[in-house]
Design a protein that fits this description.
203 residues, mainly alpha, 9 helices, 0% strand
Length: 203
């Protein structure tokens, strides 16, 4: 009998090939033929998984978002006893893609962000990824704020938006060489420290 092909595994294999090509050439250098060659599958196999190049790119973007989200979740569950504020710092660090091992992923992510500016379907996927991350940040900020002794409570959603925008912007600043990874890390954690360094309540 012919060997059964795991359709979802094949799609993920193709998505990884898309990411490697996008890292080397940008999204404009990603073609169905080159993706098939890089993934070591036939053109027919690619076309059975994805009807169009746009559909393939949407899946690849979702794949990257899932990978980042999984790392954030892993950091949150790795040490369940950590405070919400500490967990927030770990999550924001993962999202900012500052570590050397995530440099290629950061380049690919920004290539997709640039393309999403002119592609509504990619923008929709990107917004869904950002919404998921913002929800996680909002929850952690709310939990951390509940245990803080401050004069006025934070607005968790507003602070989550600001933190996500900062983390995302730092990715760009490091990639173009405006900041070193350590400088970006310092900026991020100074911002996080500032969230909890507000005046305490009057006794």
């Amino acid at each position: 009998m012919p060997r059964q092909v795991d359709h979802e595994s094949r799609r993920r294999l193709i998505a990884e090939a898309v990411c490697r090509l996008a890292d080397e050439r940008g999204l404009e250098g990603v073609t169905l033929r080159d993706v098939a060659a890089r993934a070591q599958v036939s053109m027919g196999a690619v076309q059975r998984c994805f009807r169009t190049k746009e559909e393939m790119l949407v899946f690849a973007l979702g794949h990257i978002g899932e990978r980042i989200g999984e790392r954030v979740q892993a950091r949150l569950v790795r040490s369940p006893a950590q405070s919400a504020g500490t967990a927030l710092g770990h999550a924001a660090t993962e999202v900012s893609l500052l570590r050397e091992e995530h440099r290629a992923e950061a380049r690919v992510w920004l290539a997709f962000v640039a393309q999403a500016a002119v592609s509504e379907v990619l923008a929709t996927t990107l917004k869904a990824n950002y919404a998921t991350l913002q929800e996680a940040f909002t929850r952690l900020i709310s939990e951390a704020d509940e245990s803080a002794d401050r004069a006025a409570p934070l607005d968790p959603q507003r602070e989550a938006r600001a933190l996500l925008a900062l983390a995302d912007g730092l990715t760009t600043h490091v990639l173009v060489g405006h900041l070193t990874p350590q400088e970006a890390h310092d900026v991020l954690h100074a911002h996080l420290a500032g969230l909890w360094e507000q005046p305490a309540r009057q006794r």
